[in-house]
Amino acid sequence: MRVLGVDPGLTRCGVGVVDGRPGRPGTLVFVDVVRTDPDLELGDRLLHLSRELTRHIAEHRPQEVAVERVFAQHNVRTVMGTAQAGAVAVLAAAQAGLPVRMYTPSEVKAAITGSGQADKRQMTAMVTRLLRLDSPPRPADAADALALAICHTWRGTAQSRLAAALAAQRNPGGRS
């Protein structure tokens, strides 16, 4: 399965594409950080982000998209920018007809390192090891995007199958 991971941010948005299967090391397909100029108007920044994410989806053809879920921070302005960038990522995926799953930072950390409290250094080291990279992806936004893609490869597919099985159990034979 090919997954596009997005670590949303208004100034720096990590984008990573991984091919993988549950329980197996993945393969790096692509990683980048989309940057926007903080001096530009908000609409222009979001439009640039939308165009870049749409381009990456068209170029790398992921089957699913994983986006980091915004969590509360002390800086409301940072939270708003992150939420807006996350919404743009979800919209770009929806426009391409791709399913999207959102993960909290602690879910991703637990999937990648075994600890929901892992720091950036530990996350980057594990992403480097899991994808068998020669050097760590930089900056941290790039490593975080790859971690999201790996997390979804391992957890999201199982969650999707479980949800489908539960839906079938509640609605045997597909009757409404």
UniProtKB/TrEMBL annotation:
Record's GO cellular component terms: cytoplasm; Holliday junction resolvase complex
Cofactors demanded by this protein: Mg(2+)
CDD domains, A to Z: RuvC
Listed name of the protein: Crossover junction endodeoxyribonuclease RuvC
Broad class of enzyme this protein falls into: hydrolase
Subunit description: Homodimer which binds Holliday junction (HJ) DNA. The HJ becomes 2-fold symmetrical on binding to RuvC with unstacked arms; it has a different conformation from HJ DNA in complex with RuvA. In the full resolvosome a probable DNA-RuvA(4)-RuvB(12)-RuvC(2) complex forms which resolves the HJ.
Catalytic activity: Endonucleolytic cleavage at a junction such as a reciprocal single-stranded crossover between two homologous DNA duplexes (Holliday junction)
UniProt: Mg(2+) 1 binding residues: 7, 141
UniProt EC number: 3.1.21.10
Pfam families reported in the protein's UniProt record: RuvC
Protein family: Belongs to the RuvC family.
NCBIfam families reported for this sequence: ruvC (TIGR00228)
Gene3D superfamilies in the record: Ribonuclease H-like superfamily/Ribonuclease H (3.30.420.10)
Gene assigned in the entry: ruvC
Keyword DNA-binding: yes
Keyword tRNA processing: no
Residues reported in the UniProt entry to bind Mg(2+) 2: 68
Location in the cell: Cytoplasm
Protein's job: The RuvA-RuvB-RuvC complex processes Holliday junction (HJ) DNA during genetic recombination and DNA repair. Endonuclease that resolves HJ intermediates. Cleaves cruciform DNA by making single-stranded nicks across the HJ at symmetrical positions within the homologous arms, yielding a 5'-phosphate and a 3'-hydroxyl group; requires a central core of homology in the junction. The consensus cleavage sequence is 5'-(A/T)TT(C/G)-3'. Cleavage occurs on the 3'-side of the TT dinucleotide at the point of strand exchange.
InterPro entries: RNaseH-like_sf (IPR012337), RNaseH_sf (IPR036397), X-over_junc_endoDNase_Mg_BS (IPR020563), X-over_junc_endoDNase_RuvC (IPR002176)
Cofactor note: Binds 2 Mg(2+) ion per subunit.
